[in-house]
Design goal:
Chains A, B: InterPro entries: HTH_LacI, LacI/GalR-like_sensor, Lambda_DNA-bd_dom_sf, Peripla_BP_I. Chains A, B: This is LacI family DNA-binding transcriptional regulator. With about 350 residues, chain A is an alpha/beta fold. The first copy, chain A, has 13 helices and twelve strands. The radius of gyration of chain A is 26 Å and the shape is elongated. The first copy, chain A, binds a DNA duplex (16 and 16 nucleotides) through α2 and α4.
Chain lengths: ~350, ~350
DNA sequence: CTGAAAGCGCTAACAT
DNA sequence: ATGTTAGCGCTTTCAG
């Protein structure tokens, strides 16, 4: 109703509204919220009551703009449907939340270009830090992150040349260890089956190769696909393996989804696991312990990777000294019934 | 180097920097980015080149503050580890992204209080709209959303009294339909097993009850737990059922994770499915089609719920007329081998 | 412990 | 097609 040529505003209750109602200045209300001990108790209570009454919700965009801190970080994972990352997310979220940060989650669909787009978007939100999955990023993504001058953590695999800190475990060694486990059990004709061969899966494949070479065994029994990983794909891969190599006696599938799918297909074909064929997976997802027979696999520290990544990011955000740039959280071969 | 008492700023390249470099006003740069056709081509190209050179990234906080539109919506799901919601997220994300919105995802861990906290947080980010899971929310959450005066969609179940639009399917009818399927197959001693009995699971339970009553059958064979759903929990529930009710001839588990776990436990105990016991799940997750025997279940339109929820939200954001407030996307009993 | 003034980086509104 | 001015809602800086 006042002047012409007035901006509309959001129509919501603002800090100024509260200040006016209580009869103090805006900054006092701001202090009552953010640093309550710097405001006298009586005033603080009066302000708090007014805030509750009015249903005031601070506008973070304004806060971020004024302070150039958003108290927000970005977490980029390849996929939500890949259960591996749900625990990583949980770990990151718990730690960051407890320190007053909000986590913005994005999924790149295993595409570095989509990852680049997400990084750009989240930088527009003025995130204070970024946690990325893996070490493969586009040049432009690296440039944007460098120029933004904010802390970056890369997780899950150990980066050779980290943008900041790298938290994970050695995927090559894990692939090698599990293959050596099979070799130790007396298996010789050991296949590798992979789908959605992202960089980490490729590293596991390399581990399998190295183990086979060192044992003087053939690394010919190999089928990989770029298609997404799934139970159905595990079944298909099993079918193809037994058709092409009837003498196969152990199969390493690059994740538990594939391994479970292969196991189900074995049941359908009356291939007895592990008697006729040893089956081994990767990640130790919940399903691995539950199938009949249960799946031998590699337990990976997913939750811990999330927690540690968050803690390292916090350390950088607080400008504390960073201990190391590569943090290896290890892995464990989990012997069960299938191999 | 200029005056004393100067604010620091973020140190990043700003719109003003680009404008100064190109020798135009800020608003022209802004237009070149947002409404390119309102700027002459030559100027547009010059500006674009400068933006690329300088690696300029717009500050959305500033934009949102100035325009009171964040081009951002919040999507709240109970859990990431529940695969049911990964497809919902995908559906929402695809639609919103294509319309230039960013989706902020939060998970409440099946807690309405945590949901309330998330709503508060996301309102601070000045989201333009909110998509919630389910129809159960705290009073304060409802108040905040109402006061924020932004469009709200509730999804997965059909709300009796929706905050805005409700998109989903009838969980009671789905539970009833699957039970009637079992009854139609001649089963009489039909149990219901549930875990993490959220509102939707309770509705399915109600459906089971109604079907049993109408058929004159007993609804005594019931075990539920508040603990999270898992394969292991499915196995436990199966074990408890066969111990307490040895004459059980069909078991409806309130989701596929439980059903798969129960199936595995049957294999371990040499209970033949479906010969000795019919097993039926809910949701038609990928695993249902892959187990041996495959799982009979209820296919739920998860992806479609996401897509439609997003579209309804967009309709409200664009202040178009909203057709209906309850949108029923249906379900389908998926007959497979286990029942 | 409280406040006044200035400004964060951008866009809406009104020019030309 | 381009510019000027004001202001979004908050926090920083400096004063008292």
């Amino acid at each position: 109703m006042s002047s012409q040529r007035r901006r509309k505003g959001s129509g919501r209750v603002t800090l100024a509204d509260i200040a006016a109602k209580v009869g103090v200045s805006k900054i006092t209300v701001s202090r009552a919220i953010r640093t309550p001990d710097k405001v006298s108790e009586s005033l603080r209570l009066k302000i708090q009551r007014c805030i509750d009454e009015q249903g005031y919700i601070p506008n973070r965009a304004a806060g971020a703009l004024a302070s150039s801190h958003s108290q927000t970080i970005a977490l980029l994972v390849p996929s939500f449907s890949n259960t591996v990352f749900t625990e990583v997310v949980k770990g990151v979220d718990e730690v960051m939340l407890s320190e007053g940060y909000q986590v913005l989650i994005g999924h790149s669909g295993y595409s570095t270009l989509e990852e680049e787009r997400l990084i750009e978007t989240f930088l527009q939100y003025a995130v204070d830090g970024v946690i990325l999955s893996g070490s493969q990023h586009t040049e432009r993504a690296r440039r944007m992150l460098t120029q933004a001058n904010i802390p970056v953590v890369e997780m899950m695999e150990l980066a050779d040349n980290p943008l900041g800190v790298s938290v994970g475990f050695d995927q090559v060694q894990a692939g090698k260890a599990v293959t050596e486990y099979l070799i130790g059990k007396g298996h010789k004709t050991i296949g590798f089956a992979g789908a959605r061969m992202d960089h980490r899966a490729q590293q596991r494949l390399r581990g399998w190769r190295e183990a086979m070479w060192q044992a003087g065994l053939s690394d010919d029994l190999l089928i990989t696909s770029q298609a997404p990983s799934s139970y159905a794909m595990g079944a298909n891969l099993l079918a193809e393996f037994v058709q092409r190599w009837p003498d196969l006696d152990a199969l390493f599938l690059c994740n538990d989804d594939l391994a479970a799918g292969a196991l189900f297909e074995c049941q359908r074909r009356n291939i007895r696991v592990p008697h006729d064929l040893a089956v081994i997976g990767f990640n130790d997802l919940p399903i691995a312990a539950s199938t009949a027979p249960s799946l031998t696999t590699v337990a990976t520290p997913r939750y811990e990777v999330g927690v540690r990544s968050a803690k390292e990011l916090l350390r950088m955000l607080n400008e504390e000294e960073v201990s190391e740039s590569r943090i290896d959280l290890g892995f464990e071969v989990k012997a069960r019934e299938s191999a």
